[in-house]
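assembly run, all chains below
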Amino acid sequence: MSFTRCSSAKRNNLAQQLYIQNYCRIRNGQVDLDGQPIYTNASENFKDFIKSVYKHFEVDHSKFFKMDNLSKLAFMASEILLKDEPEKDTALVLSNRASSLDTDRKHQAAISESGSGYASPAVFVYTLPNICLGEISIRHSLHSENAFFVFENFSADVLFDYSEQLLYEKKAKKVLCGWVEFDNGKYDAFLYVVSKNGTFVHSISEINRLY
Amino acid sequence: MSRGVAITGIGVISAIGNNAKENHASLISGKIGISKISQIETIHKDEIMVGEIPTLNHELEKQLGLSEDEYSRTPMIGIVAVQEAISSAGITDINDCKCGLISGTTVGGMDKSEQYFYDYFQNEEHWNHITGLNAGDSTNKIAAYIGLEESFVTTISTACSSAANAIMLGARMIKSGQLDRVIVGGTDCMSKFTLNGFKTLMIQSDTYNTPFDENRKGLNLGEAAAYLVLESDKIVSRDNKEVLAYVKGYGNANDAYHQTASSEHGDGAVLAMEKALKVAALPSEAIDYVNAHGTATPNNDLSEGRALLRIFGDKVPEFSSTKAYTGHTLAAAGGVEAVYSVMALQNNIIYPNLNFKTPMKEFDLLPETEVKEKELKTVLSNSFGFGGNCSTLIFSKEA
Amino acid sequence: MSELKLELKEKIIEQLNLEDLSVEEISDSEPLFGEGLGLDSIDALELIVMLDKDYGIKLADPKEGRKILESIDTMAAYISANGS
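ok done. output:
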């Protein structure tokens, strides 16, 4: 569905230009920061891959291993961007297409007749896509606003408008935005931080270009 | 800028009524919708109680002119509520201005997918429910059914605060001029997926839920769909609309404590309420009634109670949880309770917190246990979701 | 009894995804929740499911569960007395 925005011009006259401070991409066995590869691992299997990423960046967060695939992906991508970020008033606006389907299937399989018939509480907890926002908030002690959207495709325009509005209205000082998709073993995370300073201009075309 | 956003229409279908009028009638006559489960076969059926919408799927299909097994229950009840909201807003042409739909859901089409889980490998007969599983698909079906054209349609999935967050986003988009009109709320139907999941978390009660009671045992799951129509001042005057109430304030914050439990002193809840009051530019004394999240779990009611005390001090206004009537309707809860808040304002009535007997030992909070007539100007509604997602909405009679 | 305790330790590590932890590092009497191993409420629920699935013990009350799940010792004792 297309989306008309008529007020961004009005806002831009009053508001200052915003920037993408940095961005991270995790897919196809590779971790990129600001467009540069910073780690690769050819593991076929996501579980092994993301564990190697965790170990490589020397993260110390034992609860990582209890997370589902989507949360592990979102956690690592945000860890790379936020680990040295002092700003705690950082809102979280993430999105994807598959929602929490990967974990939904696991839960469904467990409770069905041919499964064990027993639901796992630890699995059920992750049958919502926004739990990853909770994990990121716990890790970085963020009490900011957060939203999770389910889109058919990556939608830079919605993310752009939401984060511009948050910053313009001073609801947050920075926004961690992006896309975290995990389905059928395929993973793709694209996260970026929007703030008053940065290298890349915050605009829909720029977001799409970086993605 | 604290001018509220006009609410011109409301629609709701829940265990206590198929439309707003029926819901209100049940609320003021103590008619609850909690019972043993009847529409889904589950091994847990003697251990839980739920808030089912009495209308069966084939009846919904007939009502909406759909063929058998075409849609999952989630978008069907969503359509019923959206249609009521549109009609109550006096809208004849949904596309006569920039209009959007923002809907929250957690179940999506899971009710059908779980039914046909094994069939998919055998035959393609139920293939429509593969795409139907996706949360976004439910919203798209609602949009298509009401004929929404070039517009903004999106799905929010933040657990039990989804509908509240949809309302918040919608209000912002009206304020910024991005939309002239937006239908906001949420829908979730009952499913084994959810029943089994909540069973394993051991937070369901085997009897009628008792919010804010010392001996509360847990929640009753419910199903519902509820939506508001928000419109810009421009459209309100263009069409000479009657405004039912205003979305005056809103706030969202993360508790940053645990994936599903709330922090002991309600940090996220406090932040959400503070933000909402700030947006509304109102002091806490201005709140006449709080429709609490009040799920009757040991954890929520303690956390929320403490949060209320932190915000209101010794002047906590009258409050109640209406979940003893409807059960916890998950993603729809924020929408259902928004509709109830608007109805409370319209009727100057505080709906009761049923089943309350014993005050919680941790504090001196007594919810309203009977229908109470009171001049209401401003109502605050809380919705807290898994993932630490805390949302608060403030509704008022005046802009 | 000590075989059961070893079995419990192995199951806990696997079931609760306690990466980098070995059975030698879990003592029989140390508290599993709070300090000690630092397990949380979801872990408690997982263990309650495990008690039902693997030992036929049904616990309806999470609070009762916390007492039984205090340590490997208390778990093993309860299973020996009540399990199938």
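Chain B has two domains: 5-238, 249-396.

Chain B is about 35% helix and 20% strand.

not gonna interpret more than that til we talk
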